[in-house]
Each structure stands twice: as structure tokens, then as C-alpha cells.
Amino acid sequence: MAQIFPEWSNKVFPVLLAFIVLGGVATVGFFWYYGSPKYTDVGYRPEQPVPYSHKLHAGDLGLDCRYCHIGVEVSYSASVPPTQTCMNCHTLIKTDSKKVAPVLESWTNGTPIEWVRVHDLGDYAYFNHSAHINVGVGCASCHGNVHEMEEVMQVEPLSMGWCLDCHRAPEEHLRPVDEVTNMKWTPPENQMMLARQIIEEKNINPPVDCSGCHR
Amino acid sequence: MKELKDLKGKDYWRSLDQLADTPEFRKFLEREFPEGASEIKNPLTRRNFLGLMGASIALAGLSACRRPVEKIIPYVKAPEGLIPGIPEYYATTIPIGTSAYGVVVESHEGRPTKIEGNEKHPSSLGKTNALLQASILNLYDPDRSQRIFSEGDEKEWSDFVAFWKTLYTEYKANQGEGLALLTDSFSSLTLTRLLDNFKNQFPKAILAHYSPVSQENILKGLVIATGSEYLPLYSYDKANVVLAIDADFLLAENENVINTKNFARARKVSSTSDQMNRLYAVESSYSITGAMADHRLPCSNSEIPGFVAALIKQLNASGVQVPGADDLSVQGETKIDQNWVAAVARDLVKNSGKSLIVAGSGQPAVIHALVYAINSALGNIGQTVNYRDTKDLGESNLESLVALTEKVAAGKVSTLVMLGGNPVYNAPVDINFGEVLEKVANRIHLSSHLDETSRKSTWHIPQSHFLESWGDCRAADGTLSLIQPLIAPLYESHDIVEVLSLINTGTEQKSYDVVRAIWADYIPSGEFDQNWRKILHDGLLEGSEMSTVVPPLKGRDIADYLKANPLRSYIPNQNNFELSFDTSPAVYDGRFANNGWLQELPDTVTKLTWDNAALMSHKTARHLGVKNEDVIVLNLQGRELTAPVWILPGQAHFTVTLALGYGRTSAGRIGNGVGSNAYSLRTTNAPGFDLGLMVQKTRDTYPLTSTQDHGSMEGRPLVRESTIDDYRNDPKFAEEMVKHFPLVSLWDEHGYEEGYQWGMSIDLNACTGCNACAIACQSENNIPIIGKEQVKNGREMHWIRLDRYFAGDLENPEVVHQPVACHHCEMAPCEQVCPVAATVHDEEGLNVMTYNRCIGTRYCSNNCPFKVRRFNFFNYTKDLPEIVQMAQNPDVTVRSRGVMEKCTYCVQRISAAKITAKNEQRAVKDGEIQTACQQACPADAIAFGNINDPDSRIVESKQNDRSYNMLAELNIKPRTSYLAKLRNPNPELS
Asked: What percent of chain A has pLDDT over 90?
């Protein structure tokens, strides 16, 4: 009697199994990689209504971050400056520049500039800038080398896991408080000792409970 | 129940059903959430819901991974000193009738979000009540009128100005002949000056003040007793014995915030050597003042004259002659318990100069005259009660309204300007104001909503909310308080100062300029600019309180008055019911009817929400053959009104009490058609109460929604109570009330020795059950309102609820209140059953709720012994109009459907204080963090703080002898504890 199943049918089961396993791994892996904030958020560089260059202002001209972001030491919000802040200089400087035109327009019409948010946390996460700045977490630790960016780009995933990594072991990211806005600051060789000193001095005990950030 | 009795407690019961232990109540208790609560009751069926879900998943794809683009919109020119993210606070004043409450309002980037008391203001002393807390929501009421209307057409302000200019010239020429002005009651320097100006401009014009709830009778009583009008200022903190005659001074009467604060101050006991005041309450319906009383006497309003006469007689017997009442006689009948009155009289005499008798503003003038005479005879004037003259007061005057209506009916008024108020809805029904009004050619109405009166007017002008207005008030003690705006008018609205200035001058004036000029005139010249800045900062002019006077008592005048108008006392009976009109603690006189927070707030005693009801005693209901929710027809002098029945233990027999302010037809989408309109039975002769009510039963029923049975905790001593004498003998009685085995835990216990450890203590002896905390919490924590249907399903969302228990007999039970919010148990039962660790403990002892993790199993609520967890059955906030969203606190997450929520101890306030302290390199100070409920509480009943700080108020409170943990026997270690309640009964009466 002829066999009902041809010989190749022996391979169906292992091949199917391999497909299922590989398919499963691929699917999980796909979402693991492409669904993570590391992929979806890092590198986000939206076009802004004003071609403002952080490289020029913060880098080449050396403006301190806090000249514009006035809330960063006292408020949860670092705050984006009002048009008025731009006009402190641009009433005199580069008044005919095309790039400054939208700012002048905002100033004359009284219409605010609608910036696109780059670093966007979930509304249920209550991040506070002042709590970080006042204990020596540098701007660059989260925002990267803004002084080298023509247009601001997100360089860190800003995911909860990423936050917690630092909250659990903040040593690597601490610096003297008067250096927080220094974009060119590099950790010294004895960073760990320095960090422990800051932790001691500032009584740093970053919350890792839900209530630390969620209310 | 038996166990409890053995433990020398009382039998507590929460409702008549429970007392009767009916099968329905059993069934109710067996279910965590009442029947039907888990079914999705919306037009989407389960099937097409699943269909939709499938489709949206298929469409979702990866495009949804990145959040939608969000914009940052900075200012063009930032306001000076404003840093985004840091709230600002401004002092202003809330006028409610003649009361003025100084408040400090929190503003986020120019958006007012929260109201707190102003510590410098004599009428709030940093505290608030439910109405003040809720008035922020009125600003964002989407039903507020937004345009000027004339005869149904939208108009501009300039149209009205032009219109008035022609009339102005006309009336200026004829001295105001045919012009009339009707205002709400007020107490204000600016308004008085402007009205003086009005009288000068138009000497022949008619001026009237009317407000359905007022102190008119008190003023008139003082006229009888002393010959002139005076305003009383009560000092409850100085009174050892208080007798309240139909006076709910803790909630309904004027100045209830400081009344509560002062009363609680004299009632608090921190050790066995402390003294405690004593309160007697005589009232027809159960109020929270009655609930706080050490002795309460149910007495119909019609029999109050009999009571007062009996009191005077007994005072005479104790050797105190009451001037003007030497040969006082009472016509009619009275059956007052003479022993009770005698004991009260002796107690009052014993505490001469330190006692206080107060009558409610609904009582007729003659009662107030006699009360003044009694207080005077007892030497209380100048001690526990002071008086000031009525400068700058525009109190409601019913006669002025009647006179105005007569003139209107006679066709002698061609223009009627109504500034505020809603007389078409709330004027006495017998003067037919709404109908008569149509005889006036030009009817101009300024009001926040297009209300009943506006709809009958030829011109309607939207009135600005007080947070958009300039103006001023005089507080009860005369302190000049400033109303300053926090936000420009959201709509095309105008404040009363602006409109009245236009009326007076025929030209537009800015209210800021008017108010500032009047104050500049008032304040001695020289340093005005400097003073003004301080006034803007403080919200009041320091040192501007008026001197108190001792009005001369004219006993002969009282005697003459009584000869001409003898006291009459009646006992309502089955053929002659009494109907009383009470101010609603939720909607006041109806002006708060469109405020959802207040409508959904359970009543202080009945726990009814979203309705008023005909309150009556058990005996009365049995006589009528009605039960709860049966609809009856109230017939008073031929006028009929239907209302549902609610049985209230402790109500005087054959009396019916109906709250004012319901049954609105033009309040807005929330207030329209809620409850029965008591004004439709209220007449000029009897604005407080009336006899001759006939009650007919109908076959209809009307569903009423009461939260009283929700979350019942049967038969266990949850509220612990004793008397001051027993407490002195056995100070630790509260803790000893429950005997249990030594507590051993199955789990490893957390160590909470280090850092901040938050805890709360609630003094049941001070808590009056006034609901201020509930609304403060709702405002602070973005708690949604869900509507009557959903409350009926047991889904109310309040994070703090006020449990009300009755104790004793049905005729005159005692009432205790107990605020219950999440206890933040250290061994929290909710955490042990959550399958997704959405509710966990943090290292500071908070039981935190992580909304994003919650999958809505509701196991936690099942396992919560306090039943304080609240579940979002629907997405209550999704469809909120944008304008209402502006009332939300940006520091608190707005919850979505399917997640559990509960009290967080105001974790946002804790975080903010901790960050501020850390930035300043110091520890959080005691008292720096106040939870919203604590900050609002006028009785200072709530303490909160770090239980690891031995010098803190919370530790002091927790070390009090009376401190006990609710359900300690479950070994859940709650962080919230209570201080047991005490009463101070008169030994002669117990």
C-alpha cells in the first residue's frame, strides 16, 4: 500500500515549529526594538517655526541656558522664553535677517510663537527641573550637547526605565551645582568620589517610588 | 450590635432600613458596588464595542508609537514676575448676600483654580466652607450668559450704553420719576456710595433691596428691642453655654466659617483638665448644629414662641428678670418640657456673661427682640455677642420689594433696573412679581446667567464673576475687604460697579477707577498709593473694623410691642401641618443651582444628593401613610407643590421642611428641573415658615438618591463617643473599646522609622460634618461629578465622605459625623490583592495608586475595609467642555475610564513642599504641608504631618488620650487615626 504521506511531510512539523518560534521571537524583537522610546523618540528633531540655532546662541555666543529658560532653577518647568526675551537683542541685532522675521512678526502682532515640543513626557509624569538642577544634574545629562545642535534633537529615550536607571544610581550624572549649565563640562577622573561628596552634601535620595513622579 | 452595647457604646444606625434590618439592606451590604454597577449601561452594546475595538487595533499600527505633536506657546510679553509652573496667589473677597469672606485664590498662568481662606480676614481666618470652595466652578460654568441680549437679540455693550444715555437724560430731567432700582442685599462701601449718588441724581426714583435669605428679621428685632438696627457679631469661643433656637449657626447662618472655628475652639479638649462648652439646640428639622448639640429639643417653629416664653419664665424663676417680658403671656398652646427648659435656664444663669442665646434668621423679629433682651439680662452683650451699626449695609427689605411691586402694578414705573438677584424666581409668590414685572416698559437685569428674571427682561447684561470683578465688601465686623479680579472677564460681562456707575452718570466708567476713587476718598490722604498696594496684597484694609456698641435695651418698647402683637404659639397637628423653608446647604437660595459639585454633594444630614425633599418625621409619615420617595402634594393656602417624601428622624412632628433653591427652570443644564421649587409656596406673611399646610398623598413615586447606606460598616465601633465626665474618669476609653488578640502579622512588616512618615488625625469632637472638606478635595484633586443616576448606582467619586450615624431613639436621635478618606494603612489590604501592583506603598508610608498600571479589577475596593476606593466606571472627564477643564488642578492627573482612584493625602502638595524644602536645603517644616481638606476645615479638626517629628502637631494629636485607630483589630495599621467624640451633657438632664 502506498504511503499516505510523502517523505517530505516529515519536515513539516519541525519547519512549522521553527517558523513559529522564529516568528514569535521576531515579533517580540520587532516591538522590543521598534516600539521602544529608544527607537521612536531618540533622534526626534521636529522643524521649529523659528530656525533658532542653539549652536549659535548657546555654543558660539556662549549664552547661559538660564538667560532664556528662567524657570529651570525654581519651577518644574524650564519654560520657553517669551518673544520679549528674543527682542532684548533683536531690536538691534540682525533685524533684517530672514530667520529672525517670525520673531519680529510675533512681536509686532502680539501673536505667540508656537514651538514644537521636543522633550515630551507623559502628562501623568510630573518631572521637576528645579529638583534636578539644584542638586547638580547637568542640563546636558538629559538634553545632550545642545550647544552643538542647530536644531534641538532628543538624544535620550526619556523613558521611565531610563529615569529610574539614574534615580537608582545617580553617581555618574552628578556635577558641582555651579557647573550644571556648562555644556563643556567633563567628569573628572575621581567622578565617583565627587559624586559621593555631592550626595552627602545635598542629601540626595532620589525617589524610586511611584509617588516620586506620578500624582 | 450586641457586642457594641457590651462595650458601653451606643447602638448606631445609618438609616431606617438598617434599623429595621430589611432584606433590601442585607442585599445592599452583600454587594460591594450596588446592583447593576458593573454593567455597561450605554447605547454601545457589548457586541459592537468588541467590533469597534478590533477595527481600531487593526488601524493602529506603528504610527501611533510616537505621541502626537505638542506645542509650547510662550507669552509674547510675559507678565512681570511670572514664572511658568509656579502658581500665584491673590487675595480677594467673595460676597454672599451681606456676608463677605476674604479668600486667597491660587492661579496657574492666569487661570484661577483653587480658593482658600485668607488668614488675615476676620470672616474666614484662613478657612472656608463648601459654598466658597465651590464658587470657583461658577467662573467656568459653560451655561453662564455670554452676550448682552435685548428682546431676544444679541447686542453690544455700546448698544446698551447708547440706550441708557437717552433714558438717563430723560430721568435726569424729571428727577427719576418712573425709575426704580432693585438690588440684591450687600454690604459694601462702594455700592453704598454709588447708591447715595443714585439717590442724589434721581431723588424721585424708587430703591429696593431683596434677597430671599437675609438677616432682615434680626435687624428688625433689634429695632423692637433698642430702637435702631444693629448687626450682631457672635463670639462662640467665649461662650461656655450656647442655646441655638432654630439657628444653624454652623452652616446656614451668616458667618458660619468663623462661627465653626470659634465654636470648635471652645469645644476642643486636649487633656482631661480642659473645659468644654455646652450646646443646646431647639429646632424643627435636623441641622448639623443640632448634631453637635449636647441636648437637642425637636420643636416646631410655630411653638418657638412658647419655648421662648417658657425660657423667660424659668429664667425669672432662677432670679434673672428679662426686661420687657415681665408679664409675658402666650396665646395658643405649648407643650414644651418645662424640666428641660428649667435645666437650660439654670445653666444659662450659672454662666451669666459667658453664655449665648442665638435665634435663626428665619425666626420672626419679635423672637430676636426677646433673644436680645435675654442676652442682655444675662450680661452677655459685650461679652459673647457684640453689635455694630449697619453702616454701608444694604440688607434685604421685604417691604421695599412689596412697595416696589405695588408701584409697578399701578403702572408708575417705566424703567426697572435689577442688579443681581433673581426676583422672578425667588420673590414671595403672593406678590406675583413675574407677572407684574411685564407692566414695566424697560426691564434691565444684570445677572450671571440668562435666568428666570433675565428671560422676562427687555435687557439682559451678563454679570461678571467675582474673580473677574472690582468691588468691595464690609465684613461682618466692618473690615473693608477688596474684590479684585484674577482674570479678565471670560465673556462680555460687566460687574455691578461698572453698571451702577453707568446708571448714575450716563457715561462709561471702569470699575477699577470707581472703586479706587472711593477708597482714596475714604482713606486719609497722603499715603494712599502705598496703602493701596498693601490693600491689593492683603485683600483688605487693616484696622478698618468698626467699633462695637452696646445697644441700649428699651424694655418698655418690647413690652408695648408684645401688648400690641402678643406671642402666639401653636403645636402643629395632623390637621394643621407646618411648612418650613430652609436655606439649602448646597445651592444656598438657588444661586448655586448650576454648580455640579454642590448638587452632587450629599446633604449634611439626609445625605440626599441632586434633590430637595419634603422632610418629615417617622410618625408624620406613618400618619400620612407614606414612605421615602412617595410623592406628596403640599397645599399651602391654595397653592400646590409636589415633592417627594424623605423621612428624617428627629424632625418635629407634623412639620415638613423643604429646602429653598431647587426647582429652577433657567439655571442651566445642571440646575434645571432639579428638586421642587419651595418659593412657589412662600409668601410675604411667612417667609420663614407657615402653618396651615395640607398634605395629600399621591400614587406616584420619585427616585431620590441618598448616599447614606453606601459603604456601611456594620455594628463595629467606628465612631467612638463618650461624655466629658466619663472621659475624665477613663481617658483611654476610645482605645479600650475594642478588645482583640495580640496582633501578629503574616507578612514581614515595613520599617518606617526614617525620613518623612505622613499621618493624619481627625478630631471627631470638632468635626461638624459641614462638607467643606469634601468640596475642597473635589476642587484640589479634579474629582468628577457623575450625575444622579450614577450616584444612585453607588458610584459617587468623593475621595472623602462624611459618614453620618444616628444613635438612640427615632423621635430624637443623636447624630455623629465621621469623615472617612483613605487611611493609608501600613499593612494595606488593597495592596495585597492587586494583581498588577497598581497600588503599592512608598517609603513615606503613602498608599499610592498608579493609574497607568490599574486594569480595573476592583479587587482592591473589595478588600478595603473602609470602602474609600472609587472606580471610574465611565470616562467622566472626556466630554467636559473646555471651559470646565480650566477649573482643573494642573498638578493632579485627570483619571480616565477603568481605573481606581482614592485619597492620596494630597501627594502633589507633599511633593511640592519636599522639592521646595530640598531646593532650600532644609527639611519640610511642621505645618508646611496642609492637605486640601485640612486647609479648608473651619473647625480645624484635621491634623496632618510627619509622625516621625516628635514636635509636630500630628504627633501631639496622635498622643492624645482619645486617639484611636478605626478597625485596629484587623492589624492594618492605618495612618489616619481619630480622636473620639465627646459630649458635655447637663447632669440635670442626663
From this structure: 71
CA distances to B11, B712, B720, B872 from B716, rounded to whole Å, are 10, 10, 10, 29
Instruction: For residue B516, give every residue at least 6 positions away whose Cβ sits within 8 Å of its Cβ, in sequence order, or none.
Output: B532
Q: Do B851 and A79 touch (CB under 8 A)?
A: no
User: Looking up cell 483653587, which residue turns up?
Assistant: B114
What's the rounded mean pLDDT across residues A116-136? 92
| C-alpha grid cell, residue A167 | 534615580
B357-398 confidence digits (pLDDT tens): 999 999 999 999 999 999 999 999 999 999 999 999 999 999
Closest-CA residue of chain B to A103: B76
**Count of A–B CB contacts within 8 Å?**
129
Partner residue facing B893 (CB), from A82, A110, A124: A124
* ipTM of model: 0.89
Listed by number, the residues of chain B in 895-934 with a beta carbon closer than 8 Å to a beta carbon of chain A are: 904, 907-908, 910-911, 915, 918-919, 921
Whether residue A200 lies within 8 A of chain B, CB to CB, comes out as no
Amino acid found at B738: V
> pLDDT tens, B143-194?
999 999 998 889 999 999 999 999 999 999 999 999 999 999 999 999 999 9
Cβ partners under 8 Å of residue B293, min gap 6 = B244, B279, B280, B281
| B817 SS3 class | strand
Residues of A in contact with B850 (CB under 8 A): 210, 214
Strands B721-723 and B981-983: parallel
Which helix H or strand E contains A83, and what residues bound it? helix A83-90
> Nearest Cβ partner of B75 from A34, A112, A115?
A112
Quote the pLDDT of residue B26.
Answer: 59
- Cite the beta strand spans of B109-189 per DSSP E: 111-117, 148-150, 153-155, 179-183, 186-187
B851 contact A CB<8A: yes
Domains in chain B, start-ordered, CATH in brackets?
A: 148-214+395-464+491-506 (3.40.50.740), 217-389 (3.40.228.10), 575-706 (2.40.40.20)
Nearest CA in chain A to B70: A117
How close, in Å, is residue A144 to chain B by CA atoms? 20
Tell the burial category of B24 from Cβ atoms under 10 Å away from its Cβ (0-12, 13-18, 19+): exposed
Residue of chain B nearest A114, judged by CA positions? B73
Angle ∠(B301,B307,B310) on CA atoms, nearest 5:
165
